Amino acid sequence: MASIAQPLSFPSTPPEGYPALEREPVFDAAKHLALKTPRVVTRLDAMGYSGAEIAACPTDLGITSCFRILSDEGVACLQDVARALSPYARAAGDRVPRMVRGGVYQSKFLRDFCMAPELTEAISGLCGAPMLPHTMPHQLGHLNYNPLEIGKNVDKWHVDTLRVDFVLFVTDPNLLDGGEFEYFHGTAAEVRALREAGEELPVDKVRQAEIPGAGYGVLQQGNMVVHRAKGVREAGERITLVNGYVPADMSYPDYTRFDQLAVVDPDHVAASEYARHIAWMGRESLAGDVESIGFGTDRAAYAERLERVAALLSTAAGALRGAKAEGMDHFGD
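RE: above sequence
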């Protein structure tokens, strides 16, 4: 029987180095959300993933077409917050030239939006499985800003360090030349093989999201869908937000790439967020076992349930001790 986790509360105090914004709007779901349903949902099998690969995922969703998330007022408020956070932008290794992570510690508007129950319910519905806002705050409300160098890609071809996320267009990319969001209609293994052979991605398998305007986004299983954001070809402003989710069903293995997070996030935050996330997973898994294990003699089954949690903790402890910040994984431009 699957263990369905309870949400993890947001840390009561922010870490050092994340000053709160002095002025910002107050998030109101009734005013700021305008949730619609995407016209198209592309499943993982249509992208070439096998049944075994899909069975290991919390949802068979690959990527959706663009759908509305924010109202016009919500867009205006989020733009104000993103601009207020832009002085804190920095590079993520050699992959993303300008980004802000951990903005949810600095902005209550951003935090309340990313963790809004109404938004989580909509994302769960699209996934066909219960989702929760990511338990690591640095995986909530990640902001990408266009590089200051014209033509330089906003992000390289990559898969995400989390499972489910949406990419929200905070500003309207149609007002700029460039900045397209692209994804590969195929598997990550295909892209890896092509790159290792020194080949380009076939043009007929590269798709561009059709973006009606600011406040729209695409939902994807980010660790399965290879995607990138191209550079702008003229001076202007391009801001996107990535919000992450974890499956509430604790039977799915953890996907967190701590070795990657250790590259881009401050160590005093990345390590503690990861340890807290794993402790939450262990607690929720054991809580489900406490409630569901009945009287019986199947000692092997009981042992397997305990070993699964022990393996989770042991693997995470090894990652904390041994992760080396060697660079961000990606497939290039």
